[in-house]
Amino acid sequence: MADLIADYIVSGSRNERYARIEYAHSRELEDYCHGNVLERQFPERLAWLLNEYEQLVQHFVVTLMDDVEEEIQTYDLHLESTGQRIYTIMLFDDQISFFLLPAFDEEDARWNEETLDESIDSSEKS
Question: 15, 42, 87, 111: least surrounded by Cβ within 10 Å?
Answer without folding.
Answer: 15
